[in-house]
Write a structure and sequence with these properties.
Structural class: alpha+beta
Radius of gyration: 29 Å
Strand content: 25-35%
């Protein structure tokens, strides 16, 4: 109880202090406006360089050396030391930090007095000459200093910073100010997307856009977000995938297409899932899932080399080797890790008995194929630390994949796993419209049997597209966010989303 009282008291004191700081800074702003110097009226500043560029250009400048190079910088004041007639401060811009040196006899009495009234967190513009101090720090000797925007709230205390993880996600803008390494993660995310696009473009793929708002819920297990279009007076859903539209384009003769798409699923949240996320789906005519395995390997190697400079990536305590990939069928993997050989199981009843004997949870529709998938989840997935393709999935859990010739209980489908996490999913696409229609109708019927209020419908327009003829096609989908997690060694999806979904604070 005493500890709780101390904690509550500390929080109360902090709230009072923030309120006091806010009041004082508002008073400073009012005084500036009264003097005709409203910083919020400034519309532009002639910034011509960044801190990192200065440091690179003058890396060899010796201590106490002067230059004649004038620069114009803009950014946030992060520290300040007032030392009478001269002061030091640190300015943080888009590329990093640099020290500035401010002398009263250089910028003038009035400007120096204004500088002393500025606050940590204020946005400032600085003109000055580059030099290196006696202590060896590259700096800018100010000849002009201007307040460009007033910070009315204090930044977190320097040495403790913004540490509360949930608050960092809620106030990402403060997180980015106080924790420069966070910005590095999102710079790398942008690099990853750029390299993925470059790789696919080099393979002849065309980037396209397909609808985010769709007219009805399909029969897939993922739950959508619902909305309503007022003008058309119709319910609509936010897409849970981009697949069906992209394959329509293959029907239309666009042989290689991909989309970097925002996906929305009204489901649970955990370190690997967010209700909205980014995926890439790609489709290539006249190829199959084996060729897509080769494509994935080449793509992952290429992006890792370009972004990280290595094929061995540290991730969550493991050294992940993206230069070596294992391939196993789901039957082989289940036999290897559980000891159960589903080739020797003939019926659904035998599969149910095996599940009960091994304490494996039964799926909603307990067929042999669905139970095999449950065995995989129970015994295999957490063993797949190094990159591994698992292929040949049961038809029951693969409604859009082509059946294996000679073994129609399985499909030409694979997923690839790293650090016990699924990173991507691919098929030899089902292009038989009769089979596709039957699977869609069965899938929707099963959904409605489990949930009578379900509004899922069969996408008959997609079936019509198949009736015009879909060539043999390979399709792949993978999450950008999980790939960014891997290549930045980030344990949670929230670490790689600038603004993850959060429950509102009351």
């Amino acid at each position: 109880m005493a500890e709780e009282i101390r904690s509550n008291t500390a929080e109360a004191v902090e709230e009072v202090n923030i309120a006091d700081v806010f009041r004082v800074r508002r008073e400073k702003l009012a005084a500036l406006r009264e003097a005709g110097c409203d910083p919020f009226e400034i519309t532009k500043y002639p910034q011509d360089t960044y801190s990192a560029e200065i440091k690179e250009r003058f890396a060899d400048l010796p201590a106490e050396a002067e230059t004649e190079v004038e620069v114009c910088l803009a950014g946030r004041m992060m520290t300040r030391r007032i030392m009478g007639k001269a002061s030091f401060a640190h300015l943080r811009d888009d590329k990093g930090d640099i020290q500035i040196y401010v002398r009263r006899d250089v910028i003038g009495e009035e400007a120096y007095a204004g500088f002393k009234k500025m606050d940590i967190g204020d946005i400032i513009g600085v003109k000055g000459i580059v030099f290196r101090t006696k202590m060896g720090e590259l700096s800018v000797r100010c000849t002009e200093l201007l307040l460009l925007a007033k910070s009315l709230l204090p930044l977190p205390e320097k040495f403790h910073g913004l540490k509360d993880q949930e608050m960092r996600y809620r106030q990402r803008y403060v997180d980015l100010i106080m924790n420069p390494e966070v910005k590095d993660t999102f710079v790398k995310r942008s690099m990853i997307l750029r390299e993925l696009r470059a790789f696919l473009d080099s393979k002849g793929f065309l980037e396209v856009d397909t609808p985010i708002l769709t007219p009805f819920e399909i029969g897939a297990s993922a739950r959508p977000f619902l909305t309503h279009h007022n003008t058309l007076d119709m319910d609509m859903v936010l897409r849970i995938e981009t697949e069906l539209y992209l394959k329509r384009l293959i029907v239309g003769g666009m042989d290689r297409v991909y989309e970097v798409g925002r996906i929305f699923r009204n489901e649970g949240m955990d370190p690997k899932h967010n209700p909205e996320f980014t995926s890439i789906e790609l489709y290539q005519a006249y190829t199959d899932y084996h060729a897509l395995m080769d494509l994935v390997e080449e793509m992952m190697r290429t992006v890792a080399e370009k972004v990280c400079g290595s094929l061995v990536i540290p991730y969550c305590g493991h050294q992940i080797d993206l230069g070596h990939w294992e391939r196993m069928t789901m039957l082989e993997a289940v036999k290897k890790y559980s000891g159960v050989d589903f080739d020797q199981i003939a019926t659904d009843e035998e599969a149910i008995a095996a599940a009960k004997a091994h304490h494996v949870e039964l799926p909603e529709v307990p067929t042999k194929g669905a139970i095999l998938a449950e065995f995989f989840d129970a015994f295999v997935e957490d063993k797949l630390i190094q990159p591994t393709f698992i292929y040949d999935y049961p038809v029951e859990i693969s409604p859009l994949a082509k059946r294996k010739p000679g073994n129609p209980a399985f499909t030409e489908r694979f997923e690839y796993f790293i650090n016990a996490t699924e990173f991507g999913n691919a098929f030899s696409e089902l292009n038989d419209p009769i089979d596709q229609k039957e699977r869609f109708e069965r899938q929707v019927a099963e959904r409605k049997a489990l949930d009578p209020n379900c509004r899922a419908q069969v996408d008959y327009d997609y079936v019509t597209a198949l009736e015009y003829g879909l060539p043999p096609t390979g399709g792949l989908g993978f999450g950008i966010d999980r790939l960014v997690m891997l290549l930045t060694d980030s344990p949670s999806i929230r670490d790689v989303l600038l603004f993850p979904t959060m429950k509102p604070i009351d």
